[in-house]
Amino acid sequence: MSIFKNRTVIGVICILLALVICFGITPLFNRGISQKAEIVRVTKDIHAGELITKDMVTTAEVGSYNLPSGLMTVKDNVVGKYAKADLAVGDYILAAKISEAPAAENAYLYNLDGTKQAISVTIKSFATGLSGKLQSGDIVSVIVADYPEDGETSIPAELQYVEIISVTASTGYDANTGEAKGDEKELPSTVTFLVLPEQAKVLAELEQDAKLHLSLVYRGTVDGAKQFIEAQDELIEELYAEPEEESTAESENADSVAVKPDNEVME
């Protein structure tokens, strides 16, 4: 008799639990699933470091259940930011994948004002690129080996102190910033310099006709590197001074020597 009573109690409890689930928990669950949220979605492929514009993103309404945290929901909060990773069409945008400013290694590319230019040269062997140890911010000298004009090895006056802003692997990822995918470190393929237009012309010519070696001159603080760059810029200014200014100065000196005072007595 006691066993029958226990089974009855258990059955009643099970029925009550089923009713609670059907009429209490299930409606709440369904209501949560049916709720919608507006999110920002990618409409064009966006590459890492690229500025996000209005035509690259749109807003879409999706189910709010189980959405990841940090999801961007307002389009205006995405436009004008920079992608920190590649984004494909249809991707949701997480706050962790965008930034207010471009990556540090690309900052100069977005702040060029015409005074200086970015130009890349090829690292043609492991040794010529300092065995893969060059970094953004390094100051190097460009050594020209066996130049066709005279067959000598020298450092052009325009390229004594040059600043590196990027060291890039053949895949396009920066080789010294940890951007490369995979566990194996990629070897650098090109080096990008920040230079004056006069230096850019010299580098473009040497890239085609000469063997370039890069020797590390300085690696340290920004202020320390600035001293080398300022010295190089001053030298460039002297090398490319306008000839007219020099000839005018010489002419003025000659006139001052030729003119004699009015009260001078000729013997």
Main attributes of the structure:
267 residues; Type Iii Antifreeze Protein Isoform Hplc 12; single chain; two-stranded antiparallel sheet; alpha+beta; 5-stranded antiparallel beta sheet; disordered C terminus
Word description of this protein:
With 267 residues, the protein is α+β, with helices and mostly antiparallel strands. The protein folds into two domains: 36-99, Alpha-Beta Complex (Type Iii Antifreeze Protein Isoform Hplc 12), CATH 3.90.1210; 106-245, no CATH class. It is built from five helices and nine strands. The protein has helices at 2-34, 107-111, 197-209, 222-239, 243-258; strands at 36-42, 57-63, 82-83, 98-99, 117-122, 139-145, 162-169, 188-195, 211-218. The strands form three sheets. It has a five-stranded antiparallel beta sheet with strand order 5-8-7-6-9, with helices on both faces. Strands 1-2 form a two-stranded antiparallel sheet. The termini are far apart.
